[in-house]
Structure formats: structure tokens, C-alpha cells
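Weekly modeling sync, notes
Attendees: S.R. (lead), two postdocs, one rotation student

Agenda item 3: backlog of single-chain predictions. S.R. asked that every request posted to the team notebook include the full sequence so nobody has to chase files. The rotation student volunteered to paste the first one in as an example of the format we agreed on. Action items at the bottom.

Example entry:
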Amino acid sequence: MPVDLSFDDPRSDEVLDAAAGVRRSILPGGVRLVTQTDRSVRSATLGMWLPVGSRDERPEHAGSTHVLEHLLFKGTARRSAMDIATAFDEVGGESNAVTAKEHTLYYGRVRSADLPMALDVLTDMITAPSLEEDALATEREVILEELAMAEDDPGDVGYETFLADVLGPDTPIGRPVGGTAESVNALGIEDVRAHFSEHYRPENLLVTAVGDVDHEQLSEQLVAGLRRGGWVLEDGAVPTVRRREAHPEMMLGGAAGGHEVAAIRPHLLARPAEQTHIYLGGTGLSAVHEDRHALSVLMSILGGGMSSRLFQNIREQRGLAYTVYSFSAAYRDAGLFGLYAACRPARTAQVVELLGEELATMGERGVDQAEMRRARGQITGSFALGLEDTSSRMGRLGTVELVHGTYTGVDETLSRIAAVEAEDVRRLAAQLASSFSTRVDVGPES
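Predicted structure, as returned to the notebook:
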């Protein structure tokens, strides 16, 4: 049965799933720790999550979340940048970080014997970074190169533009995660320090660990590491309340949708290229929407693999594109769906028409049981294969805690996918087909 991940008891310590070895504690300072013990492996993946992403930045701090992520690897009071880099390299481990729209994640994967080292390094980074002016000057250039690299990739620039157009380019959630060259150049070290002080606090921190780990031992080491970095961990403190719904107008069926595909004027990003990269779609489902499992099935049938409708119709039968698929993105209070294809410019109009028609047909005529069976098998299989990886399981625990607020076991999740009916998929397809609002083309001018 699902378990509510509440904050009511500041001393909360409970087993969420005894069979899977999942346990959760709220530690001093409101720090959350969720672990999954798996003695069949000799490694562990450790993640440190802060529920702050690009959408949480103040206008004057635009881009600071991503810049801060980079700077945390540039040294602390106890370690140089080289010390941080070599700590994982010399034990054959790996470490990295991800900035997203709604969270920032720092993680490491090591042998279980090296977990204390990984915990010490990561807690040092998030509690006591140096945040020096010269480090910002250097890393700013690195980030500008990163942005330039993305600008040269038609897939990256097309997707980011599509996402901004659907969610609103002038809204916090619609802004690019990495900022822009202008906003990154405008950031000063005091902006970054202010962003760090505001968000990197005990009550915001979630730590997840999966593998050959001991929950009690990790709890003690975590508290000690955070205190060593200078954080004050008060007994009785509770975690920050989870993100609330703030943009109901961005939900499926909101004001943004309702256009015929043929009437959507493309946002053309002119690039010298041999193909036109097409992004077509609109508002979708939030990460907590009750139809999210039906959306997974729909996306699998529509454009999730070689047997999908888009692949079979546009590539296999007509030979109009090499790459074609469907996709979705979900946030706490917003979501989007999209269809993608890359083709020679002369075929763009035909491909756009076929993309829209395929989803509309699904909404009108539904799907058959063979498609439902394949979709369930694809989702179940990829989900099961992902659980073989401690990093994937670590990420799942983080998403469950930060976004959903309810722990659901693997068997329960799979049963919910199995419970999706063909009519659920048809109904959702009809809704999506009526919500087309945005088209982005990246390629040569006609």
C-alpha cells in the first residue's frame, strides 16, 4: 500500500517497504534521509537533493542555480577543486551534478567501502563551498561554452525553444535551466552567494542512498558531516513544505491549448542544415496527475519505439524521416507533450500533418489490445531493467520524496500501469489532440 511521506512528526523514522529494504528518517535540522539497502551489490549511489531549480530563481539571480552547481566543485574550506576531483577518481568512483527546473542534485557512485568518503566530500561541498570571485570568472567561461555548444545543436535549441513557448518564455518555469549568455555574464559572486544562502539549508536537504548501505550508520555520518561543514541542525526542525501548485493554467485543458495543427504558425529558428527538426505539441500533464500512468502507455504506443505508430507510419511505411518519436515532460504543477521528427525541408508540411493526424486518430478510434499489451510490456521491462541500477533507484527515491509525497512500491506501481485501459488511452489522446498549441522548426529557411 502507498505510504504518505508526511512531515508531521519531526522525529519520523519508518520502514517504507520492508521487502525492498526502503527506510526513511527525518534527522535534526529537518534533513531527510531515504535509503534502500541491497546487500546483493558491493556499491552504493548517494544523492544530495535541494528542491531549488531554475524556476525558483529571482529575476536578478537568473542562471545562478546552474552557476552555483558548477562552483560547488571548485573548492571548499577543506578541499581544493583538485581534491574534490581526485577523491572519486582514485577509488574508481564517479560524481556529478544536475540542475533542473525544480531541483538540484549532487551525486556519487562508489564501492560501499568508500561511501564514507563520498558522503564527506558531498556534505563538504554543499555546506562550505568557497564561492570565490576568481572561480566564478573561470567557470563563467566554461558555462558560456556549454551554452554555445547547446546553441549549435538543433535538437537542444529546438527543444528548449519548444519548452519555453509551451510553458511561457517570460515565466520562471519557462526560462532555460542554464540561463542565457546575457544573464550568466551579468551574475556577480554576491548574487551566487545570496542564492546559496537562501536555499542551501538543512530543512531543504534530502539525501537518498541505494546499495550496500546501513541506514543507521549513514544517518550518524550524515549529521556529523553537515555539522562539520558549519550547518546548525536543531532538534525538532521539520523539512520545507513541498512545492505547491502555482500554475493551474499550465495544466492540460488550460487556456494555452485548442488549436488545429494546420493553423499553428511555426516558430522558425533558421539554421544552415540539411534537415528541418520539427517539435509539435502543447500543454500536458503534471507529475502528480492521476492520468500519468495512462500517459506513459499512450506515449509508448504513439512514439515510444520501433513498433510505435509514428515510427511505423512516418518512417517504415513512408520513408519520410529517420528519427521520429513522442515525448513528455512533467513538473509539480505543469506539463507538456510533444511530437518530434527530422526530415528534409521539402517534406516538412507532410510530416507535420501526419504527426497531428496520428494522435487525432488515436483519440477518435482508440487503440487495440495488441498495442496495449506491447506498451505494458515495454514500460514494465524498461522499469525493471532500470531497477538493476542503483543510480536509477536512487533517483526514483528522490522523485518520490520531493515531488509525489507518497511512497509506492514497485509492484503497486506496475499494477497501476497494468490497470490502464484502452479507453483511458483513447480519452487522453483526444484531450492531447485538442491541446496542440506550439510548433518549432529548426532548419533552413524555405
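Discussion: group reviewed the output briefly. The radius of gyration is 23 Å.
Action items: rotation student to repeat for the remaining queue; S.R. to check formatting next week.
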